[in-house]
Each structure stands twice: as structure tokens, then as C-alpha cells.
Amino acid sequence: MEARLLRLPQRLLLLGAAALTVSALETADLVALCGQTWQGDGLLLRSHSESRRFYFVTPDTDCRLWVQAAAPGERIRFQFRFFLVYSLTPASAAVSPTPGASSPAPADPCAPGSFLQFYEGSPGAPRALGAPVCGLTIPAPVASSGPFLGLRLVTRGRQPRVDFVGEVTSFRSGPCGAYFRCRNGRCIPPSLVCDHWGLDNCGDGSDQSARPPADCGGPSLVPSQTGRPDAGASKPTTPFLPLGSAGPLWAAAERSAPAGRDPAQRNATLEGSTES
Fold first, then answer.
1. Strand partners, 171
2. Is the CATH number of domain 26-273 1.10.10.10?
3. pLDDT in tens, 194-237
4. Which residues pair with 49 in a beta bridge?
5. pTM for the predicted model, two decimal places
6. 49 near 71, Cβ under 8 Å?
7. Which positions ≥6 away from 79 have C-beta within 8 Å?
8. N or C end of the chain, less CB within 10 A?
9. How many CB atoms sit inside 10 A of residue 179's CB?
């Protein structure tokens, strides 16, 4: 078996190594992973399986997902590529808080409608990370101070509208060792460098640069897709603004809010306040 492997053309061996590398980048849907903890190098996280085609409109959703860093000593960074979370008809009742965590303040502009809240700390003792986010403006990136980052999606009102896409990155500071060193000093797993979607896991674009040390520009391989809901599961959907296949992923964020509704816009805690 070893002899056969050694006789394989070098090009095929390199292609196989690349396939193993990109397999570490996964895709998942938040509403399909409610109550679970995901751990890995990197993740392209969508709000739901029909993201960018239909809104997620299921009312009274309270979905929590925890993401855990790939290795001890690492932290989690999350940044949105596209963001849309609000309700056409706001709710009158307050949402029950997460046990052990603070809930949105009544004066918060997200309080009447749907929102997304970040948490850090372990799942058993979560701490709110910044204010709830909602509206049409892409929030600032956030980073945990430890290995866990939690996301909680709450939909309220009779007509919630939810659709977002974000990038999850496990990273560390200090000596990078075998990890890729970003221009900004962060260290990310080598599996996230030159990925198929061009995700900015470094936060400065250096992991997708055509120049060394990333030296991207070779043939792209399609990453694995995991975390998709069962084919039989059905979620109420509403048609979403169609986009051209060549358009940027966040182009629809420029669309106007429905008449008579001015979605609240709140930014998450700036990553500069939580990471070096």
C-alpha cells in the first residue's frame, strides 16, 4: 500500500493534502443547531438553510448555539458578511432571559422586535457580550475572551424577518508556531488560509492574499457542508430579494426597510475592546 502511495504523481498527492485542509472549513445553519455546541477551526454560519433566498420567519424562536475554540488557549472571533434581523410587527410582551445571563433592557431599541445576542463564558454561566443587535446594518465583529462564544436568536412579533451570514474563526495570540500568522498578529489554523469562499478569518485579509505568506491563487476546492437541517424539516419562509450570482454577498443589505418600519440598529461590542 505504501509503495503504491509513493508511486502516485506528486500533483495528486498535493491535491489530496489540499482537500484535507479545506475539509476543516464547514458550513452550518444556526436554527438547525439550537441547543448544541460546535467546535472546530472555522465555520461559515448562516441563519437558516434558505439564507439569501427566503427570510426566516418562524415566530417565537429562541435558539441558542455555542461555538468552542478548536484548541486550548484559543478564542473565537465572529464577523458578519450579511445581516438582517427585525420584525415588521413588534411584540408587546418581554422575552424571558437566559438563565444566568442578562436580558435586553426595556429601553433597548431591539426590545420590541427580533434580535441576536452574543455571550461569552461557558454555556452554564453565560455573560452577555455587548448589547443585542438588530436592524439592517452589519454589526462590528466580536471576539470572546475565552474559548466559548454564544449566539442567541430571538424572534418576536407576528412578522419576524431574519437572514444573516457570518464567519466563525478559532484564533490565538502570541507565538504562532505551526499556525498562520496574520498581518495583525493573530494566529489562525492553516486550514483556513486560502479557503474556497475567501473568508477573511484574519480580519485583515492577509489569509486570502495572493502574496506570501498566504500566496493564494491556486485552484479552489469545495469545502464540506455540514449542519444542514433534515430534508423533511419545514420552516415558514418568505421570498427574499433575488441577487445576481456575481453580486457581492452583502449587496442585499442596502435594500430599504419595509414601509412604516425603521429597524433598530445596534452594533455589537467592538472587537478591539475584547481582544488584542
1. 75
2. no
3. 988 788 999 999 999 988 888 897 544 434 333 333 333 333 43
4. none
5. 0.67
6. no
7. 141, 142, 166, 167, 200, 203, 271
8. N
9. 21
